[in-house]
Amino acid sequence: MPLNDRPLHICLISEEYPPDTGWGGIGTYTYNLARGLVQQGQRVQVVAGCLKSAATAEEEGVRVHRIGFAAPKQPVKRLIYRIFQVYTHRMPYLRRKLEFAHAAAGLIRRLHDADPLDLLETAEYDANGYFATRWGRIPAVVKIHTPLLVNYHLNRLPVTREVRWCDRLERRQTRRAACITTPSRAMKRLAEDWLQPRRDIRVLPNPIDTEEFSPAGPAVRDPGRYLFYTGRLERRKGVHILLEAFRRARHRIPEVKLVLAGHDTPTFQTDGRTVSFREYLTANDLLADIGDRVIFLGKVDRRELPAYYRGSVAGVFPSEEFENFPYTCLEAMACGRAVIVTDSGGMAEMVTDGVSGRCVPAGEAAPLAEALVDVAQRPDITERMGTAARGRILENYSMAAISRRTLDLYHEVCS
Predict the structure, then answer these.
(1) Are both 268 and 326 inside the same structural domain?
(2) pTM surpassing 0.85?
(3) Does one domain contain both 290 and 141?
(4) Total domain count for the chain?
(5) Which of 118, 237, 271, 393 is geometrically suited to a Cys-Cys bond with 334, CB 3.0 to 4.6 A?
(6) pLDDT (tens digit per residue) in 333-366
(7) Do 193 and 161 sit in the same domain of this protein?
(8) Widest CA span in the chain
(9) What is the pLDDT of residue 197?
(10) Of 107, 113, 152, whose CA–CA distance to 132 is shortest?
(11) Is 60 exceeded by the pLDDT of residue 1?
């Protein structure tokens, strides 16, 4: 039957897939895309990681295979695997990624033999589809989110042999793709330099669930008026600059607090050591004079985030270094909140300064402080920006809109 006359049979590969294995950007993207494609009448399978035992289940119309890695039983393959273990004994991250990619490829072969797949999609990050794309029987789309090596450079972390190996796998997998996409024009420019030799890369934004993240529903009010940041507490996301900006603004907005949600990461440098954000704050006394007005929530369940977005004055996402297309910004806008972002990447493509939020120069505390004061002191204008932000999300980034565009691309690749 011609492709246009029947649903496509699609397999998405992502070790990270909610709720079992996390709600990071790639997991959230895969989750939203899978459900969006099903709503468009397509057949979708997801190969994902598991925390406990392997299992297969139907979830919202998506067939989800949770897999683990089992060492081979055949003597020759067992010997090869033992050599691999010895070689990677100091590179556990690389070993785990290769084990998942190998297990995923084996399952995909079995799925394809039983019921042929039309197309695969996977992220470049961690090379989850490395062996499946090397097999070459099914056309693949690779979406570039932010390569591991690029992440290390942005956070100014030392690049180890393990990181270089992971980078090689990510590049090789990506070069095999029938089509390469990325969520933002900013990431496209960076990815063209990373991939070499250059390939055509299509810009296809990430989809957001506009029903889960909407202005309707409960809102957190306990801290009073507050500015809200959520995301990893890492250097490239500019959380240290946000603290400095809030200190500068504190006397002009004395009734406003700063609430930060997200898990801490060791991406800061103090006395030649790599330390967590909280350690960095303590070592540099960054909470002086504002400690009673800064609230750290730690990692917050994703189901609780809409209430925090709705209750805030505005969302603040002050990335110092490059930021691709973060879901946190999409979520805040979908909840009808104005956002304050920097011009360091894809967020500047989401937000029109003065219309749906504020966009300030990256890495500078002074203009960020002015934006914090502006949204807090002008609630009527801030509310109008929040309404405009919601409208922009509905028009450009909803699950339905992005799933239709993705499906058009898939048909192009398959034909």
Answers:
(1) yes
(2) yes
(3) no
(4) 2
(5) 393
(6) 999 999 999 998 899 999 999 999 999 999 999 9
(7) yes
(8) 71
(9) 85
(10) 107
(11) no
pLDDT in tens, 186-217: 999 999 999 988 889 999 999 999 999 999 99
Give ∠ CA 212-217-219 in degrees, rounded to 5: 110
Structural domain for 114, as ranges: 3-207+398-414
* Spatial contact of 169 and 176, defined as CB atoms under 8 Å apart: no
Token pair recorded at residue 319: 């990335």
Given pLDDT bands bounded at 50, 70 and 90, which one contains residue 49? very high
In this structure, are 151 and 285 located in the same domain? no
C-alpha distance from residue 87 to each of 52, 69, 83, 90 (Å)? 26, 18, 6, 8
Do residue 180 and residue 250 come from a single domain?
A: no
Same-domain check for residues 383 and 407: no
Q: Domain with 235 in it: what CATH number?
A: 3.40.50.2000
User: Which comes out higher in pLDDT, residue 284 or 63?
Assistant: 63
Question: Which segments of 248-380 are extended strands (E)?
Answer: 256-261, 268-270, 273-275, 294-298, 314-317, 339-342, 357-360
Residue 219 lies in a domain: no
Rounded (5°) CA angle 93-97-101: 170
Token digits of residue 4: 């246009």
The reply to whether omega before 147 is within 30° of 0 (cis) is: no
Q: Residue 409 in 3-state DSSP?
A: helix
Residues 192 and 235 in one domain: no
User: Would you say residue 218 lies in a domain?
Assistant: no
Do both 156 and 243 map to the same domain? no
Which pLDDT belongs to residue 288?
86
- From the centroid of its chain, how far is CA 364? 24
Whether 306 is in a domain gets the answer yes
In the chain, % of residues over pLDDT 70 = 99
Look at residue 327 and tell me if it is in a domain. Answer: yes
How far, in Å, CA of 32 to CA of 10, rounded?
A: 14
Rg for the chain, CA atoms, rounded? 22
CA-angle at 80, arms to 73 and 72, nearest 5°: 20
- Entry field: residues in the chain: 415
